[in-house]
C-alpha cells in the first residue's frame, strides 16, 4: 500500500502492555513482544495469533526476520532464533548483561549491540557477531575503559547498522574515546573512529542509532544535532542542530528528524545533500518517530496518526487513535508501519491495525482482539486498555498499584454480563442472589 487512504476504523487491536515496543511485519505476519515476556506472531489481516513463544523477559526491541527465522535480543541477555512458521526455538545464547539493539542479520551472521554493567555508574558496551544458522559466537568488540578506568554510562545503547563490509555503531555518550566507529564485518576490527562533536572538554556523543543510505549515513549526536557522514571513513559532511531521542529517517529525497527547540517540538524534513531545513511540522507532543513511503510521511503526534507530504510537510490527513477517559498520554515509541492491509501503530500499550474499510472513527470498545484470543493465560488485553486476570495484573495489585479498570468490568468500563450503568443490578446483589440459591439448595437436600 504505497499511499494509504485516511483510516476510518480499527480493524483489530491487542493489548501488549508495553509502550516502548517495536513490532515488525514480514510475509503477512506481525511479530512483536508483550509485557509478559512473550514473542507473538499474529496474522496481519485478522490479528489472529499463530503462536506465542516465552522469551524470558519483556521483548521491547524489534525482532529481525530473515530466511524463515525470527531473531530477538532481550534485556535478560538472551539472543534467540525462532522458527517463523511454528514458533519453535532453533537456538539460544545467553550473556551476562543485556542486548541493546535489534539484531542485524545478513546471509550468515547476526550482529547485535550489548551492554554489561560494571557498577552503578559504568558499563562496558560491546558488539557481538554470531552465526545466523547455529548461533555460534564469531567475534566481540568491546569499548574498553580509559587510562583512568572510566568506561561509559549504562544508558549508552550501542546499535549497529551494516554498510557493505562496514558495521557502523553508535557507541558512548560520555566515554573519552570517540563516539561512532566503523568495524569490519569480518572480524570486528576498527576501520575508523569519529566523534561527530565540536566540543573538546565536554564531548557530546552519538545518541541515536545510525540511519544508512546508499552513499551517506545520518546520526543524531546529542546534544549537538544531526550529522551526515561517510560510512566508508566516518568523515562528517554537514550538521543541523536539534536535540531528540528519535533517530533520523531517510526516504523520498529527505532526511526526517524530530526536533526539540527549548521545549518547542516539531518534525522536520531536511535536504539530504545540504542539510537545509525544507519544512517543519510543529506538535504539542511527540509520540513516535517517522515512517516514509510513497511520497508520504507517517507519524504519531499527540493522540493522532498523521500523514504529511514528504516533500513539503503539508498535512494530508489525521486520524484520532482510540483512547480511554482519564488516560494519561504515553509515548508510542515505535514508528507506524505501512502495510498492504493498513497502518500498524503501537499506541498507549496497545497494538492497532487501522485502515479505511469502515465508516467513522471507532470507540475504544470497538477496538477488540479476536474473541478466541481472550484467554487469561495469553497475557493479552481483550480491548484497548482492557484488563484480564494475568500474572502481571496480580503483581500490580499485590504491589498496591491499582489497574485502570477493576476486575468486575468489561474492557469498555461497563459491568460484566452486559450491564449498563443504568441497571439496578450490582455486584453486591449478585452475591446475595448466589448465596440465597446455595442456601435453598442445602435446605432442599436436607429435606430429602
Can you describe this structure in just a few lines?
By secondary structure, the chain is mainly beta.
Describe the structure.
With 448 residues, this protein is mostly beta strands. The chain has a domain at 423-448. The protein has helices spanning 391-398, 427-447, and strands at residues 9-15, 24-26, 29-33, 38-43, 49-54, 64-66, 69-73, 78-83, 89-94, 98-99, 104-105, 109-117, 123-131, 137-142, 159-163, 166-170, 180-184, 190-194, 211-212, 217-221, 225-229, 236-241, 249-251, 254-261, 264-270, 277-283, 291-293, 296-301, 304-309, 315-320, 337-339, 342-347, 350-355. The strands form eight sheets. Strands 10, 11, 12, 13 and 14 form a five-stranded antiparallel beta sheet that branches. The longest helix is centred in the C-terminal third of the chain and has 21 residues, at 427-447. The protein is globular, with a radius of gyration of 25 Å.
Amino acid at each position: 500500500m504505497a499511499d494509504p487512504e485516511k483510516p476510518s476504523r480499527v480493524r483489530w487491536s491487542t493489548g501488549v502492555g508495553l509502550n516502548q515496543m517495536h513490532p515488525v511485519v514480514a510475509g503477512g505476519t506481525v511479530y512483536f513482544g508483550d509485557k509478559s515476556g512473550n514473542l507473538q506472531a499474529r496474522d496481519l489481516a485478522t490479528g489472529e495469533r499463530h503462536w506465542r513463544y516465552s522469551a524470558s523477559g519483556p521483548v521491547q526491541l524489534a525482532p529481525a526476520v530473515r530466511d524463515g527465522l525470527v531473531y530477538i535480543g532481550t534485556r535478560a541477555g538472551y539472543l534467540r532464533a525462532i522458527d517463523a512458521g511454528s514458533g519453535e526455538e532453533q537456538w539460544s545464547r545467553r550473556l551476562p548483561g543485556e542486548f541493546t539493539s535489534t539484531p542485524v542479520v545478513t546471509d550468515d551472521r547476526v550482529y547485535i549491540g550489548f551492554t554489561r554493567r560494571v557498577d552503578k555508574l559504568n558499563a562496558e558496551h560491546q558488539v557481538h557477531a554470531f552465526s545466523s544458522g547455529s548461533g555460534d559466537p564469531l567475534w566481540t568488540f568491546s569499548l574498553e575503559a580509559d587510562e583512568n578506568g572510566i568506561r561509559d554510562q549504562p544508558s549508552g545503547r550501542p546499535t549497529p547498522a551494516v554498510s557493505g563490509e562496514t558495521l557502523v555503531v553508535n557507541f558512548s555518550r560520555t566515554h573519552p574515546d570517540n563516539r561512532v566507529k566503523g568495524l569490519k564485518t569480518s572480524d570486528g576490527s576498527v576501520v575508523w573512529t569519529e566523534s561527530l562533536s565540536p566540543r573538546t572538554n565536554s564531548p557530546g556523543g552519538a545518541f541515536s542509532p545510525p540511519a544508512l543510505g546508499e552513499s551517506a549515513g545520518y546520526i543524531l549526536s546529542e546534544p549537538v544535532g544531526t550529522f551526515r557522514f561517510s560510512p566508508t571513513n566516518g568523515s562528517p559532511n554537514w550538521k543541523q542542530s536539534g536535540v531528540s531521542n528519535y533517530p533520523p529517517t531517510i526516504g523520498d529525497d529527505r532526511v526526517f528528524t524530530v526536533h526539540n527547540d527549548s521545549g518547542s517540538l516539531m518534525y522536520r524534513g531536511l535536504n539530504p545533500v545540504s542539510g537545509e531545513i525544507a519544512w517543519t511540522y510543529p506538535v504539542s507532543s511527540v509520540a513516535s518517530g517517522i515512517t516514509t513511503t510513497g511520497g508520504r510521511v507517517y507519524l504519531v503526534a499527540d493522540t493522532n496518526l498523521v500523514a504529511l507530504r514528504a516533500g513539503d510537510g503539508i498535512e494530508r490527513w489525521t486520524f484520532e487513535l482510540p483512547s480511554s477517559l482519564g488516560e494519561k498520554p504515553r509515548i508510542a515509541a515505535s514508528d507506524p508501519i505501512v502495510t498492504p492491509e493498513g497502518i500498524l501503530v503501537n499506541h498507549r500499550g496497545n497494538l492497532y491495525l487501522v485502515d479505511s474499510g469502515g465508516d467513522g472513527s471507532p470507540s475504544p470498545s470497538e477496538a477488540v482482539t479476536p474473541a478466541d484470543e481472550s484467554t487469561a493465560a495469553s497475557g493479552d488485553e481483550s480491548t484497548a486498555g482492557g484488563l484480564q486476570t494475568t500474572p502481571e495484573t496480580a503483581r500490580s495489585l499485590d504491589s498496591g498499584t491499582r489497574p485502570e479498570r477493576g476486575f468486575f468490568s468489561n474492557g469498555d468500563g461497563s459491568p460484566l454480563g452486559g450491564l449498563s450503568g443504568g441497571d439496578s443490578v450490582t455486584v453486591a446483589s449478585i452475591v446475595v442472589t448466589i448465596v440465597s440459591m446455595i442456601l435453598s439448595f442445602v435446605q432442599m437436600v436436607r429435606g430429602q
